[in-house]
Amino acid sequence: MLKTTVIGASGYTGAELALMIHKHPELTLTGLFVSANSVDAGKNISALHGNLAGVIDMTVEPLVDPEAVAQASDVVFLATAHEVSHDLAPVFLENDCQVFDLSGAFRVNQDGFYTEFYGFEHQHSDWLKQATYGLAEWNQEAIQKSQLIAVAGCYPTASQLGIKPLLENQLIDTQQWPVINAVSGVSGAGRKASMTNSFCEVSLHAYGVFTHRHQPEIATHLGCDVIFTPHLGNFKRGILATITMKLQPGVTEQQVAQAFEQAYQDKPLVRLADGDLPRLQNVQNTPFCDIGWKVSNEHIIVVSAIDNLLKGASSQAMQCLNIHYGYPELTALV
Amino acid sequence: MLKTTVIGASGYTGAELALMIHKHPELTLTGLFVSANSVDAGKNISALHGNLAGVIDMTVEPLVDPEAVAQASDVVFLATAHEVSHDLAPVFLENDCQVFDLSGAFRVNQDGFYTEFYGFEHQHSDWLKQATYGLAEWNQEAIQKSQLIAVAGCYPTASQLGIKPLLENQLIDTQQWPVINAVSGVSGAGRKASMTNSFCEVSLHAYGVFTHRHQPEIATHLGCDVIFTPHLGNFKRGILATITMKLQPGVTEQQVAQAFEQAYQDKPLVRLADGDLPRLQNVQNTPFCDIGWKVSNEHIIVVSAIDNLLKGASSQAMQCLNIHYGYPELTALV
Amino acid sequence: MLKTTVIGASGYTGAELALMIHKHPELTLTGLFVSANSVDAGKNISALHGNLAGVIDMTVEPLVDPEAVAQASDVVFLATAHEVSHDLAPVFLENDCQVFDLSGAFRVNQDGFYTEFYGFEHQHSDWLKQATYGLAEWNQEAIQKSQLIAVAGCYPTASQLGIKPLLENQLIDTQQWPVINAVSGVSGAGRKASMTNSFCEVSLHAYGVFTHRHQPEIATHLGCDVIFTPHLGNFKRGILATITMKLQPGVTEQQVAQAFEQAYQDKPLVRLADGDLPRLQNVQNTPFCDIGWKVSNEHIIVVSAIDNLLKGASSQAMQCLNIHYGYPELTALV
Amino acid sequence: MLKTTVIGASGYTGAELALMIHKHPELTLTGLFVSANSVDAGKNISALHGNLAGVIDMTVEPLVDPEAVAQASDVVFLATAHEVSHDLAPVFLENDCQVFDLSGAFRVNQDGFYTEFYGFEHQHSDWLKQATYGLAEWNQEAIQKSQLIAVAGCYPTASQLGIKPLLENQLIDTQQWPVINAVSGVSGAGRKASMTNSFCEVSLHAYGVFTHRHQPEIATHLGCDVIFTPHLGNFKRGILATITMKLQPGVTEQQVAQAFEQAYQDKPLVRLADGDLPRLQNVQNTPFCDIGWKVSNEHIIVVSAIDNLLKGASSQAMQCLNIHYGYPELTALV
């Protein structure tokens, strides 16, 4: 049994992780932590996430001695703010923990990226180089070997899973940038009080247009420019991404279907919607990514749907763990 | 034209007031104010309430000199916190303004009430005595004469409009206390950031059980004990109150119907749902109170529905203004 | 492994059952059926319930020969309309199947009840007598022995779990009838097209006042009259019941707490909210019932929350199965 | 006073029209009609639309003699199905009524269009030629003169108002087709029972991809190809359209801003969101179209928001009426 610790247990992704660790036959939940100065320190996890009452009975502790926690853990999930992950990951790594980081702190190995998009200068370029991008369906081999998995972002997961099969098979004309329109549930903003996320103010709108940090994350890992427009929707969880692309001349519907089928034939967490288009509801509270598409002459529209807290964060982290340790991919997920 | 000022224009009820003043043929909107230290001071009203763009173009000013504002106003609406109304109302009253206070600061003239339920000691007992309770359908005469209208609370409006016709006609057995179960939209908590009202946390639940300050407001003005259980619902606006009462022996359905019809026959803002029961949606964004009921032997269930921001606050304030000045009751409301 | 069949697989409770059977280590899902003339016959279960894609791959068959299905099954779940369950249950029972009926067809053994509240005359009074009411926490022994479990209704489950501990300990004054106000999600009405349940028409309102068939179900099984007022809420799943009762003179808070604790100390699916009150969200998508209460002098308000499709239907059916066969109570549930 | 009739009063747009006619100082509401065989014939309008109780008290009559209704009317609004409008409009026109048709029956004067996209052959090509497309901000002169106004569709209104200023000023490179992603509230599907629109089934998804009839409506009236992807959102009313376009080389932000400002400087119902992006909530229940945009090098994203039942249907019809008769444009709208 692997001793498994969650840092950042007060948030929504932390709660999902705790629940999956609890279900996983090879993991023992050994600790739940929050920042030392968090108001949530000392509370029972079920006082923060009422749905966990009767399932997990454990105090959320303040992280005062990361070193000691590291020494007591085999596996660490970081469900923490980007800056916090940036600072903590090396501590756990140097103590031989296997680390799954759900933040953006180790996702993009590119000069100036963190300064521009995250507002801090990256201090751990070695670890940044060694980190493996945790897009589970596409980086399986690297995930098996790497000690630090930078789990892919929520929008980037939905987007890339919809684009990569076409891109890899050179079916799209990338001179005309793919247009990604995505709508996310409010939980994507985390568990916190803010005017923007207050119930009466939430209302469908676009935000972060041309400036969202997930645009370069997508573009870098695809190796292709994209236009990415995120929206906030009036629902709690889920992301629906609608991606418009230009096909290369002569590409047929059959080629498109084949590309998707080949890419995901042995990937149990991607469901290809045969002729139909995904509905957000079908993926909410599930670890799946649903993908559907329509072709019209030289254009294709791909729709991709995930639960932002699961396939877009926690369950993909657990999927990476299953891959890394060679457990069946669906363990603790379905 | 009456020069009309709104204090507390950054909130939801303030915005509704601004819009109604704008529509009212006898009123001129002369000023919109917030507390001197509010972050919203200096913004255009439409930057705070986007729906007002293109309708009202006015800066929300910091209230630095209430005396000066009072002298420039004929009518003042206080859409402010209880303590703020408590402090400001006398300033406006002493400057001969007609005051409509939407807070709870002048609603209950009872020893110890404000200390117990509002957490402050009331300093203006003279004004408290002179204040008229603004439950528009029931206090018409007093509203015509009074300089200070303490507009009835949201839950108290829905509750009392459903109970008073039966009580006044002695149709209910008050030894068995009326049981009021009410569900309110989230806007009842005001326009602010808080964990409780954050989109992902809002979920139907009861709160303030046996302790909510609207229980004594209802009981005092009815002259009858009640059990009042408020709930937060997952919608933006509206209150639905379901009231269970015991009838006096021998009371017939006909007597019940007659009591409601007599009470509201010339009250255009109360709609009696003939045989049917109110649906929240029908009153949302309207100034109406919908009332329906069912009788079974010795019990009666009355359901009453209002928009908490309108009939439960702003439109009832305007209705009181119309009554006070003798304008047609529906002016600026329908 | 018990060969397990679901009749009524096109509905929401049928889908939940299929998923739980799939997860259960002692059950094999051997068949999913709908009425012979259903438009859903012949479709894959995942075409009806998209969330099941990638999890359960099975055709929903038309039930043309119940006898044959019975002979191929050890366990049958009836997630069918009341009349259909009434007709089918005997067929399965006489073929030695263990039957869990989620409809109301065998819940109330009282003369004239089905004619008055369900609109049909009951033809199987023998089975009605032998049926055990599936309120899992309270009928454990009978459930162990009975071949026909009439799983408790959704509102009755939430209501009785909140009232029985007080009633059994004679803490409440039943001369003043308990007042149950409950709000249910729209899925309670089943999976079908109707004006009432169309998205734009759904809006909080009371219905079935004094006439809902769950009132006599509750009253009969409690042995105490109650006033039951159901409401439709603007959410998909869950029931929150707020129950107002009069305590016997002299009853203390401590006695109340003790009654709840004793009743549920070894019942893992009832969670007592210590001092707090339940939030619907915490039970949605879970098999739990959350119960909280507040006492004020001679009155008590109990709030009880369940997922109507799970603890109010499918998971309680599975819980009864676990009890019946002696499997750990949480198997396939948490 | 113009005698004004609404055909199709049982639907959501019919109700909105009735309310606006009621408010309009130059119009008298002389009749509300539904199809002769409608179940709603004979009901009071407030029994169909509870929010109208206490405001409009009028029976919805079956349309048995259109000729007679025409002779009793000066103005007719057709809030009817496409085929019904197609058949009825000529009757009213030939009786000298001024007709505002909210359906798609007279919007696109193109060979084969109705056969392909509406499934019927158009029989009134003369009227189709004479009809004026009711996109109020862009066809003012023609609207003033025309007897038949084919009010623009909901998606086409949101889309064209966001694209036309750029297109008319030749700021966009139309070789790369504008990509319109739009999300509509469920009321867009009309007031009816259907599985797709049942509360529990509604969930964000794309539909009608590459096949929706609003694509050719937009393309024809713009004179430019577009990719149009409609989505159903989990809200009752409103449309948010996000439009991604390529700018002509060298086009500056200033030129873009200027184009929008010039186009809408004297158009009171278009609100340009200065630097900000529209939020759906701000236009719900209003007659406004909010437009915002962001430029990044050679790309521009325009976001446009309307209430689908108002600016996307009824209030735009009334706006066209105001323009046609020379009344102030905001009459009965704000």
From TrEMBL, chains A, B, C, D:
Pathway: Amino-acid biosynthesis; L-arginine biosynthesis; N(2)-acetyl-L-ornithine from L-glutamate: step 3/4
Catalytic activity: N-acetyl-L-glutamate 5-semialdehyde + phosphate + NADP(+) = N-acetyl-L-glutamyl 5-phosphate + NADPH + H(+)
Chief localization: cytoplasm
Pfam families in the record: Semialdhyde_dh (PF01118), Semialdhyde_dhC_1 (PF22698)
Sequence ranges assigned to domain Semialdehyde dehydrogenase NAD-binding in this UniProt record: 3-146
UniProt-listed CDD domains: AGPR_1_C, AGPR_1_N
SUPFAM superfamilies: Glyceraldehyde-3-phosphate dehydrogenase-like, C-terminal domain, NAD(P)-binding Rossmann-fold domains
GO annotation terms (biological process): L-arginine biosynthetic process
Keyword NADP: yes
PANTHER family reported for this sequence: N-ACETYL-GAMMA-GLUTAMYL-PHOSPHATE REDUCTASE, CHLOROPLASTIC-RELATED (PTHR32338:SF10), N-ACETYL-GAMMA-GLUTAMYL-PHOSPHATE REDUCTASE, CHLOROPLASTIC-RELATED-RELATED (PTHR32338)
Protein name per Swiss-Prot or TrEMBL: N-acetyl-gamma-glutamyl-phosphate reductase
Native source species: Vibrio aerogenes CECT 7868
Gene symbol of the encoding locus: argC
